[in-house]
Design a protein that fits this description.
single chain, about 350 residues, D-Maltodextrin-Binding Protein, domain 2, 14 helices, about 20% strand, iron, metal ion binding, Iron(III) transport system substrate-binding protein, signal, thiamine pyrophosphate binding
Length: about 350
């Protein structure tokens, strides 16, 4: 009997020790809400001694929060934030350089160029236009084939797009138009586009969700969300404008000053694995590890060929200036912030 009590006490002590050993890692993210559970489950299954505590919001809000916390960091790591945002944080000296085990297996365009990278890419999300066939027919709106099409008078009041100050999708749109058309013509294009905008949302996926629900005929959004809604039966088509598609990378990094550095490095090591990249491919057609991606239903097989030659450094360096200019010109049509 005493032996049984001793073994039971030992088992209880071992369980308590294991529970105490689990490290809670605060991870800031702009991943879609429906991705968080599966990402945490996959990581924690492979690393049961670390538990993720997500802090989620849209890209612009998470970026602003991180910058506001610069002198008193609250996050240990970032997983699923735009690479352009991480380049801003890197410029502020907020990222802890770390070379994850196996990072050499990733495509070089998905890895920070420094010898010891400050961030690594996960996948690419790509701009697209969500077009509701039923609502468009009611208003006699043709399927757009170019960005310039969206400035035509026929679309007045029928377009919704994300606000770039709060949405990473919105910012990749604006940054890509300025690169594609040049700054002068890019702002002229946005002036004309603004005449047709019904509202600017604070979420990159919301314009496509609105189109799928019949709340707007056309939403400027990103291809993953559109493909997922089509797969669920939404009466929308995806348009991929002929001038080329803006895009950004979801990326991961360690926040400098974290007191959970070992756990944060474990997250980075997992983020570059084949298993993680396979998980990313469930949502995105382009992932960081070559040879992993399989076709995504309702996603064009040549999506990579449609993506512009994006200058991430330029987009990061000019981010504050561009967002300020955009806000001064167009913010009057933005939805109220929650």
């Amino acid at each position: 009997m005493n032996l049984k009590k001793t073994l039971l006490a030992a088992a209880v002590a071992l369980t308590a020790t294991g529970a105490q050993a689990a490290t809670e890692l605060t991870v800031y993210t702009a991943l879609e809400a429906d991705q968080l559970k599966s990402y945490a489950k996959a990581f924690e299954s492979a690393n049961p001694d670390v538990k993720i505590r997500w802090v989620r919001d849209s890209t612009g809000i998470i970026t602003a929060r991180l910058l506001a916390e610069k002198d008193n960091p609250q996050a240990d790591a970032v997983l699923g934030l735009a690479a352009t945002s991480l380049l801003v944080l890197k410029g502020e000296g907020m990222l802890q350089p770390y070379k994850p085990a196996g990072v050499e297996q990733l495509s070089t365009q998905f890895v920070d160029k420094d010898e010891t990278p400050s961030w690594i890419g996960m996948d690419a999300w790509v701009a697209s236009v969500c077009y509701n066939r039923i609502e468009a027919e009611k208003h006699d709106l043709p399927m757009p084939t170019s960005w310039k099409d969206l400035t035509k008078p026929v679309y007045q009041g029928h377009l919704v797009m994300p606000n770039p100050n709060s949405s990473g999708t919105g910012y990749l749109d604006v940054a890509s138009w300025l690169q594609t058309f040049g700054e002068e013509d890019g702002w002229k294009f946005m002036d004309d586009l603004h005449q047709n905008i019904d509202r600017y949302t604070h979420s990159g996926s919301k314009p496509c969700k609105m189109a799928a629900a019949g709340e707007t005929p056309i939403g400027i959004s990103f291809a993953y969300r559109g493909a997922k809604l089509i797969n669920k039966g939404a009466p929308i088509d995806l348009a991929f404008p002929s001038e080329g598609l803006g895009w950004d990378m979801e990326a991961a990094a360690i926040i400098k000053g974290s007191d959970k550095m070992d756990a944060a490095k474990t997250l980075m090591d997992w983020a570059v694995t084949k298993d993680a990249n396979t998980l990313y491919n469930g949502s995105y057609a382009v992932v960081a590890m070559p040879g992993v991606a399989k076709p995504v239903p309702n996603y064009p097989s040549d999506i990579a060929d449609r993506m512009i030659d994006n200058d991430f450094e330029w987009a990061a360096v000019n981010r504050s200036r561009i967002l300020k200019e955009w806000q001064q010109r167009y913010d009057g049509k933005s939805e109220p912030k929650n």
